[in-house]
Specification:
By secondary structure, this protein is mostly beta strands. Helices cover 0% and strands 45% of the residues. Strands 1-2-3-4 form a four-stranded antiparallel β-sheet, with no helix packed on it.
Length: 233
């Protein structure tokens, strides 16, 4: 990393990103342009993403074959595989270089999560926006439609979302009061509702009643949470 101090990392199916004080570095598989270097080449060692020169990136997230970044001005940038609209540019084209998501240009984004074929963003007002592959209801809009542009998850209106996690075929949201909401495929119990049903809309996980959750993570078919007492679930 050129002697720079890494502040955070994110790992996907075949590529990785590291955020340093000096920029964004990527390495691994680049077949869809998900490394952000303007080509489809693989990188065997970390390489700085020059497209962010002059920008201060504050967060990054890696999906299956696409990448997301948030800059200090609250903008979201996406690049890589554009199938299903997961880049949020209104089309399904792949992007070899980071491109600003103009549909969220009037809003200040504070966090993002990239999953398999989908992306989720949180805006400063605590709303969650999702786009990309709608199969299994993992976008949280009550249907299976793909979304080529970011769409607000209306089912979470009234909740202040502070963290999101996009997984393989399900998604999680953490609210300011320490609750977790989950939606998408539940076939392996990954939604935490005590059954294996699919949830088309975000649903609160009642098993955490009396617990304050402070962090969440969604995998391919499982979920993890950390509670305020430092326990892992």
């Amino acid at each position: 990393l050129g002697g720079e101090r890494a502040m955070s990392v994110s790992v996907g199916d075949a590529h990785s990103l590291a955020l340093t004080a000096g920029g964004v570095w990527s390495w691994g598989g680049g077949a869809f342009g998900q490394l952000g270097h303007g080509n489809a080449q693989h990188q065997l060692v970390p390489k700085k993403v020059k497209a962010f020169t002059g920008q201060r990136v504050v967060a990054v997230s890696v999906g299956g074959a696409h990448s997301l970044a948030v800059t200090a001005d609250g903008a979201v940038w996406s690049w890589g595989d554009g199938e299903y609209g997961m880049l949020g540019h209104g089309d399904e084209q792949k992007q070899l270089l980071p491109k600003k998501v103009e549909a969220l240009a009037e809003r200040r984004v504070v966090a993002v999560s990239a999953g398999y074929g989908l992306s989720i963003a949180i805006t400063a007002d605590g709303a969650a926006w999702s786009w990309g592959l709608g199969a299994s209801g993992k976008l949280g809009h009550g249907d299976t439609q793909d979304q080529l542009l970011p769409k607000k998850a209306e089912a979470l209106t009234g909740q202040r979302v502070v963290a999101v996690a996009a997984g393989g075929f399900h998604s999680l949201a953490l609210t300011a009061n320490g609750e977790i909401w989950s939606w998408g495929i539940g076939g392996h119990g990954q939604l935490g509702h005590g059954d294996q049903q699919t949830q088309w809309l975000p649903k609160k996980i009642e098993a955490f009643a009396g617990q304050r959750v402070v962090a969440v993570s969604a995998g391919a078919r499982h979920s993890l949470a950390i509670t305020a007492d430092g326990a892992v679930w």
